[in-house]
Amino acid sequence: MKVKNITLDELLKKQLKDPEFRRLWEESEPQYQATRALIKARLEKKLSQRQLAKKADTTQAVISRVESMAVNPSVGLLQKLASALGKKLEIKFV
């Protein structure tokens, strides 16, 4: 049996044809964007998770769970993290 190689983009394109998968994918997008923005801001400041946690008066485990998308962070937590990074949290309805 011959195995066909498939790229991640090809797999995603195929999966997005399934309405239920597409709905779940689209629902997770805001959390994904927030997570990417948090990681980017933390790395730009050259902070470890532990250092950010200390500045935000939380634990490294909390930062890890947020960055791995294991939890859906509250607006309050995102505000606290943004402030610790010297950033402003902005939420938009589009």
Automatic annotation (TrEMBL):
The record's listing under Gene3D superfamilies reads: lambda repressor-like DNA-binding domains
Which SMART domains does the UniProt entry name for this protein? HTH_XRE (SM00530)
Write out the GO MF terms. DNA binding
Top-rank taxon of the source lineage equals Bacteria
Which PROSITE patterns has this protein been placed in?
HTH_CROC1 (PS50943)
Query: A Pfam family matched by this chain, by name?
Result: HTH_3
Q: Which residues form the HTH cro/C1-type domain?
A: 38-94
Q: Which InterPro entries match?
A: Cro/C1-type_HTH, Lambda_DNA-bd_dom_sf
**What is the residue range of the signal peptide feature?**
none
What name does UniProt use for this protein?
HTH domain-containing protein
